[in-house]
Amino acid sequence: MVKNVNPVLKEVLDKINPTKEELNSIDKYLKQFISQFEKKLKSSKISAEIFVGGSFAKKTMIRKGGYDIDVFVRFDEKYKKQDISNLTEKILRSFKSENLISIHGSRNYFKINVNSTFFVEIIPVLKVKNPKQAENITDLSYFHVNYIKRKLKTEKMLEDVRLAKAFCHANKCYGAESYISGFSGYALELLIYHYKGFLNFLMAMEKIKGKEIIDIEKLYKNKYEIAMNMNSAKMGSPIVLIDPTYKERNALAALSHDTFKKFQEACRKFLKNPSKESFEIKEIDLGRIKKNAEKSNAEFILIKAETEKQEPGVAGSKLLKFYKHISEEVEKFYKISNKGFEYNEKKEAEFFFVVKKKHEIIQQGPNSRDRDNVFLFRKHHRNTFMKKERIYARDKFDKKIKEFIEEWKSINSRKVKEMHIKNLEIITF
Question: pTM of the full predicted structure?
Fold first, then answer.
């Protein structure tokens, strides 16, 4: 069992638990907002109900920058074929709120920046009696909130969820968005309930080696039945967590193997030596990385990319996709010893590479039977050789990484634009 952990966890909870003043301020605003919204619904003769969801409703919210409060507008099923996002926006616009932001997604939702402490997201959903009728993942939120409120009844369990969220957030594993591919808040709530606590959760996660299947409510008879009934695309994550409210859904489908591996390493480190630093976001020390690169005769480069897509979800996924693409391009000509991606949850991201030139690059050419293209290939490459009926070339390479990126950017300007990157620059410091 982990020693000297309780004082650490108590110190962390003191830091991440919302204050009574903050909770009262949010509660006061929500009462006024919901009352105003319900009056607008009534006067517009729109059949819908309001419910507060997310971590605020479930009492699992943590202090991490601004609080995110989810308010759902649950429309009657008769609006199924109507644009409920448009209906929601019309009501919100009638408030004449200057801080209203429309966020595009599979179904548009809206954000109001109330003050520096918190913001509210207004999410239109359909009122469905059965989760199978859901047309959007957000339609399931009502079932998720009610399930968690029934299961997490003690303050100790709620605190353990907060610890899990803070731990994952600090180790960049919190969020189902594609640029994170981690644990959603709902998934962590389910896991804490399943393992009966934060430390049990960490110890269980650290031990997982193959694919883990968790069926909290025993909705399936066995793993074979799960495999037969679940969509194979939903089974690719290292942990398959059957949603207790909708058994055809894997609540951890977004969790990637890379993120889970990183999370397991964080678990091992904390369990071996518990410290509050495990709950604090570590800033990448680019100065140290650059200095170490110079000591080992490697090159360091820092690149900033900007997209025109909406933050954070779409922008983050586009920037991550571009980072992976440029990583592959760099790897063709350099040995990468270190690299990193930092997204600011807006429209920009920075990524760095520590590299050494390969000096000699093997270029693959056409099939040996394709005489015309073999002739052209030999014309462009001096040192060629045949292997398994295909021609290859050994090309010398001696470009510095900065020169390579600048040249690549110029040659691939169209590709960069197609990937929704509107600005790409090398940062010097």
Answer: 0.87
